[in-house]
Amino acid sequence: MIPYGRQDIQPQDIDAVLEVLQSDFLTQGPAVPHFEQAVANQVGARHGVAVNSATSALHLACLAVGLGEGDWLWTSPITFVASANCGLYCRATVDFVDIDPRTYNLCPQALEAKLARAEREGRLPKVVVAVHLCGQPCDMQAIHALSERYGFRVVEDASHAIGGRYRGEPIGNGRYSDITVFSFHPVKIITTAEGGLAVTNDDRLAETMALLRSHGVTRDPALMTQEAEGPWYYQQVALGFNYRMTELQAALGESQLARLEDYVARRHAMAERYDRLLAELPLTTPWQHPDSYSGRHLYVIRLELEAIQPSHRRVFEALRDQGIGVNLHYIPVHTQPYYRELGFAPGDFPEAERYYAEAISLPLYPTMTETQQDEVVAALTRALEGA
Ligand SMILES: *Cc1c(COP(=O)(O)O)cnc(C)c1O
């Protein structure tokens, strides 16, 4: 099976992890802060807060910007469930903004129209989570301008987008948002096995996320709310969690980070090769904004269903049957059973649902060979013919 994504582990990654295993600290040592600084430097942010997953980072980001009961969080329906669940963790109400049919990201015009309605109804969102689907940046200038006008905070879910650029600047530099979150799950661009990281330029947001990552417990007298009772003293000043990243993960991540630019460049070369090889087939290849440089985490095609005999499902099955590990990113979150219980229904976000009816993610990862890619294209060609 050719998977849709997979990690690349080199000998230097293994050495980096082994070195930590033989050191004094498996957790809460020097590797995590070192990795945080390396990622922050890489993306041009002041602070990095490493955690055990991007899901945890999204939760901490929402708490840090003050999301709570009675507030609203809006995001795209075409994302992994974690981009929305972070709102529910904070007891906020979640709603969605339909996607742009060309970028598949949250549509800024739909956002603007929904904000105008929400203002009249007195239920403006506190947080908008902008998801850079497949690594292609959202229209952050538009979202940022709306955030100034309507007073919401912006969290970028850049789980697909580390190494990408928006208008010439790295995703994560925080020019248009409060916090940006990266994922280091093995299918993502670089990996720490499980792991995530939030970057921000705001000292207070970084401090809050770091505190909540580790139980809300501090040994820093500056953060204590009553006087220290002695040198043994620690104090719990907030209700936090154990969302810490281990030293092993941080060492792996920092070793991977050295190859970030090569990985993204390789993904671009493979994606452009797909564009050429698929040009004559009855499908839409991913549109790329000329002003941005995608992380190219996923290569999503949309089938032209009226031009082919087999159904979307049949094409998907035929690819899997031929050993091609295609996937579908994503099932619209509002149609998940859990979200239907909250009142959402099919039909609520038509562009997202149209996308879902046609989309297939083809295999794309840095160590994929051209021969494997040719196999994918041949299998897809057969599948589209209904053969
Ligand atoms: C993978 C992913 C997440 C969650 O990342 P984890 O590190 O697995 O928690 C969140 N949002 C998006 C868009 C993702 O792709």
UniProtKB/TrEMBL annotation:
Keyword DNA repair: no
Residues found modified as N6-(pyridoxal phosphate)lysine: 188
Annotated catalytic residues: 188 (proton acceptor)
GO process annotations (BP): polysaccharide biosynthetic process
Annotated Pfam families: DegT_DnrJ_EryC1
Keyword terms: Pyridoxal phosphate
Domain of life, source organism: Bacteria
Coiled-coil boundaries: none
GO molecular function, one term: pyridoxal phosphate binding
UniProt keyword Protein biosynthesis, yes or no: no
Family per record: Belongs to the DegT/DnrJ/EryC1 family.
PANTHER family: DTDP-4-AMINO-4,6-DIDEOXYGALACTOSE TRANSAMINASE, TRANSAMINASE
Name the UniProt record assigns to this protein: UDP-4-amino-4, 6-dideoxy-N-acetyl-beta-L-altrosamine transaminase
Organism name: Halomonas cerina
